Amino acid sequence: MAKVFVITGPSGVGKGTLIKELLQRVPDLELSVSATTRQPREGEVDGRDYHFLSAAQFDRRIDDEDFLEFATYSGNLYGTMRTEVERRLAEGHSVVLEIEVQGARQVRAAMRESVQVFIAPPDPSVLRERLDSRGTDAPHAIDARLEVASQEMAAQDEFAYRVVNDDLEHASDELERIVRAELGLSDG
Fold it and tell me: Which of 50, 113, 172, 182 gets the highest tally of CB atoms within 10 A of its CB?
């Protein structure tokens, strides 16, 4: 049976990197492409990395209840389109959502059967280093992300699973074990 896997954690914790590795290791999974009002970063492609929407387009979709979840994060709106997730589940594909804690709570309320995994840093100070090394955000934006990260870290006990991203290989192995166990698959 297809499932929804919610992967969350603070900005800079490595969710995207872990999910890329997970998708290679468990090829039957599909990543849901989120919608956002933020501007594309260099190299990002509409429809592949995000569905880039104007604020007006996003608001219209909220009014039409098109989102399974949506949240404001660092001044931009982000959301998961309900139709995208439901279509993939109906086709028998398990779906991975890479979303923030606020959105994960909404998915939990709407889909109690979703599998929720919190990715934690080995130490909160690592987040600043990772965000700085990305080179994609201004210092004030990094400070805002770290403020939100502190609140998100306080919520990690709400999640069924917690993976500490202290070592990419170890964290990838742990995330893969969780997903395979939930899907009833043997180890890869």
Answer: 172
Tell me if 71 sits within 8 A of 100, measured CB to CB.
yes
CB 15 within 8 A of CB 9: yes
Kindly state the tokens that stand for 128.
């600043």
Instruction: State in Å, rounded, how far the first CA of the chain is from the last one.
Output: 18
Rounded to 10 deg, the angle between the 125-134 and 139-153 helix axes is 140
Residues contacting residue 24 through CB under 8 Å, at least 6 positions apart = none
| 167-188 pLDDT per residue, tens | 999 999 999 999 999 999 876 5
Could you tell me the pTM of the whole model? Answer: 0.84
Q: Do 43 and 22 contact (CB within 8 A), yes or no?
A: no
Q: For residue range 82-129, what is the model confidence (pLDDT) as tens digits?
A: 998 999 999 999 999 998 888 999 999 999 999 999 999 887 777 667
